[in-house]
Every structure is written in C-alpha cells, then in structure tokens.
C-alpha cells in the first residue's frame, strides 16, 4: 500500500509541477563546465525564432505600429511625443525609437528594425535563463507564439521592461549574496535597471516595493522603495514642464482597457458578486499585488520578479495582447501543467486570430476559445493562467522535488 501511495503521489507531483523542468540543466556543483553550456543550441533556436518573427512582421500592421510612426516623427522633429496621445510610457525608449526611425525612414524598413530590436531583447531574456542553467526555458521562450506575435507583429516594448527587471533582479541577488547591510555597487545596478524598466513601460510599477519587502535594514528598504520612483520622476520632469496637460492625461492618468478578465470571469460564475466588474477593481488589483509581495519575498529576487509578472497579468484590472509577454517568462521558466495549458491556448489565441495571423490549424481552434470573442478569450485564458500561478506558488512554498521511484514494493 505504501508503494502504491508513493507512486500515486509521485505521478501527481510530476503531472502538476514538472519538477524535472524546474531543475537547472547545468548542475551547480559542476564547476568545470561553462556557465553558458547550451549556447550553440540556443543560437540555433534563436535563428529559427528570428525567421518566425520576420514572418510575423509581414502580417497586417496594427494601431501600435502606426503610433510608433507618429511618435518617432515627433522625436525626429524635436516635438513633444506625449502630445500625440500615443505614448503613455516613460521616456527611456524615445531616443532609441527616433534613432531607428532615422536609420529606417520607410515604414516597412522601420517595422523590420523594430522586429530586430525586439528579437535581441527576447534573446537577452533567454540568455539570462541560460546563464542560470535553464536551457529548456530559454529555448521555449523564444519559440512561443506569444513572444513571436508581440515582438514580430504587435511590436510592443513590454519585453524591454521584462529584460531590465530581470537584470535588476540578478543584480539584487548578487548584492544579497554579499550579506552586507550597506549599499553596494550591485544595489546601484539594480536600482538603475529598475528605473530603466519603469521608464520603458511601467508594467513593473510595484516591483520596487516587492524588492523593498526583501531588504534588510530600514535604510536599504527606503532606498529601494523611493529610489526608482524618484529617478523616474526626474526623467519625466522635462516633459511634464514642456507639456503638463499631455503628461497628466496620457501618462499619469492613463488607463488601459478596463476589462479585468479574471474578475469578469469570476463575476460571470457568480463567484465575485460585483454589480459593475470594473468598479474599484483597479484599487483591488493594487492591494492584491502588494499583499502577494509579502508571500513571494521568501524566494530569491529573480524568482520573485518572474512571479511578479505572472501575478500582475493574472490580477490586472486591464489586459491587452501585449501584456501576455509579462507573464510568459514566468510560464516558460516555472513550467507546470497549468502554465502549459495557458501557453498552448494563448498560442491558439494569437496565431488563430483571423485579423492578424489566421494560421489554418490555429484558426480552426480559435472559435472554441471564448466563443470567438477576444474579451471572452481573455477571461478563459485568465482561468488557465490562474491554475499555473497557483501551482507555481505552491512549488515555491514547498520546493516540490521529483519523487524517486521505489523498488521491490518498498
């Protein structure tokens, strides 16, 4: 009986948690191996993924790309880009956007330039995974339909914020390893990367608070709590003085689609009794994310940052296609049964979209996802994401390991 129970428990663990996926490809004790073992494999996968991204950018362009055309023209003409109403983000990427437009003035060339830039950003994220010994996650991230669609066709910059946040987390881990309470150079790297992430896209808006939760000593907590926001304010100040109303309307009080997929789904199932699903959801979202930061402070900064991305996407009061990239690195790195389903159906959602991709096999399945309605699809996908998020949280709390096989009924 004990043997049967052991096998059942082992099967359940492997099916839900994928513990062997969580284990690094490169054992930490093998010092004679290169920290970039698997680089050749990753480069082959990256070349294949670049082909897919170039194919994706050939699909019909959308509102976002038209916005980048307008904003880049303002940058080159030394006009305030915030007055276009098409740039609700920080100023970090504006010089780069103008530089790429100067090199590639024609829209088609500019679109290819954006695709190449975002490809290298995605490769940067995969390289971080590789250095940490997770080759499978690094390769998976590059070939997922979600990352291909957002970097290639949508050409949104959320992955830039993700990359910078992961660099900040890596630096914060290095600082933590020094076991010093005093601020050190790695803290400076972490704070600069956090600021750059906020100033590219503020999808990691509450991450500095999560980092502050994990610090030792009041001084360190205050620096991480105040530093990135103060630096971001300084970066925004010239544009705010240039055109106060534009920055106020399009940045400070900008609100994305108030669709709240998870809350809408729970409301439709009578599990969240709200007469207006958008009423106070934004405040509730912030409270939930802040409280969960206290839970995830038990893990290292890198795992915390990945968990933040999935947490933000899951509980967000507003979701658009590009926001999927915020949670995708977490799903690829902490792959489990729930995340696998979410990635599969997200791929159907993006590649089956009849407007942009319309890939035949995916298109046939697209109609079954959310009743061929993108808002309903978001809600259905939120449930799958929630399943993966719960499994990830349990794994982080208990560090589920592969259960060894038993012999001879023992």
Describe what this molecule looks like in 3D.
The chain is mainly alpha-helical and 410 residues long. The protein has one domain (37-398). 68% of the residues lie in helices and 0% in strands. Helix 15 (281-296) runs antiparallel to helix 16. The longest helix has 25 residues, at 107-131. 43% of the residues are buried. The model is unreliable at 401-410 (pLDDT under 50).
Tell me the span between the first and last alpha carbons: 9 Å
Computed CA radius of gyration, to the nearest angstrom: 22 Å
Number of strands: 0
Portion of residues within helices: 55-70%
Sketch the topology as an H/E string, one letter per element.
HHHHHHHHHHHHHHHHHHHH
Derived from helix and strand composition plus strand pairing, the structural class reads mainly alpha
Strand content: under 5%
**How many strands, what sense, and barrel or not for the largest sheet?**
none
- Average pLDDT, rounded to a whole number, is 87
* Number of contiguous helices: 20
Low-confidence stretches: 401-410
Shape: globular
Count of discrete structural domains = 1
């Amino acid at each position: 009986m004990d043997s049967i129970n052991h096998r059942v428990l082992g099967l359940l663990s492997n099916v839900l948690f994928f513990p062997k996926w969580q284990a690094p490809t490169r054992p930490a004790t093998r010092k004679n191996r290169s920290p970039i073992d698997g680089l050749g494999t990753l480069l082959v996968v990256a070349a294949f993924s670049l082909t897919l991204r170039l194919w994706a950018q050939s699909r019909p362009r959308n509102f976002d790309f038209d916005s980048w055309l307008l904003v880049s023209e303002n940058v080159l003409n030394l006009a305030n880009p915030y007055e276009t109403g098409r740039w609700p983000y920080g100023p970090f990427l504006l010089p780069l956007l103008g530089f790429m437009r100067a090199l590639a003035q024609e829209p088609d060339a500019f679109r290819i330039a954006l695709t190449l830039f975002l490809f290298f950003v995605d490769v940067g994220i995969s390289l971080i995974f590789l250095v940490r010994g997770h080759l499978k996650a690094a390769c998976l991230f590059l070939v997922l339909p979600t990352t291909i669609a957002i970097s290639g066709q949508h050409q949104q910059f959320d992955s830039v914020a993700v990359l910078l946040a992961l660099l900040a987390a890596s630096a914060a881990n290095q600082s933590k390893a020094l076991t010093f309470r005093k601020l050190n150079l790695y803290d400076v790297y972490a704070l600069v990367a956090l600021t750059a992430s906020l100033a590219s896209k503020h999808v990691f808006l509450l991450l500095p608070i999560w980092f502050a939760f994990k610090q030792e000593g009041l001084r360190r907590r205050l620096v991480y709590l105040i530093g990135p926001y103060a630096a971001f304010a300084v970066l925004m100040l010239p544009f705010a003085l240039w055109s106060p109303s534009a920055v106020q309307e399009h940045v400070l009080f900008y609100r994305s689609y108030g669709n709240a997929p998870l809350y809408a789904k729970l409301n439709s199932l009578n599990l969240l009794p709200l007469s207006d699903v958008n009423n106070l959801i934004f405040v509730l979202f912030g409270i939930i994310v802040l409280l969960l930061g206290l839970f995830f402070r038990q893990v290292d900064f890198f795992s915390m940052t990945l968990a933040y991305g999935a947490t933000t996407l899951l509980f967000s009061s507003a979701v658009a296609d590009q926001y999927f990239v915020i949670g995708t690195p977490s799903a690829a790195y902490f792959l489990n049964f729930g995340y696998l389903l979410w990635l599969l159906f997200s791929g159907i959602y993006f590649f089956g979209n009849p407007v942009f991709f319309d890939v035949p096999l995916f298109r046939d399945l697209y109609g079954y996802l959310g009743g061929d309605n993108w808002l309903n699809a978001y809600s259905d996908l939120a449930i799958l994401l929630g399943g993966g998020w719960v499994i990830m949280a349990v794994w982080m709390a208990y560090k589920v390991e592969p259960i060894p096989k038993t012999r001879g009924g023992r």
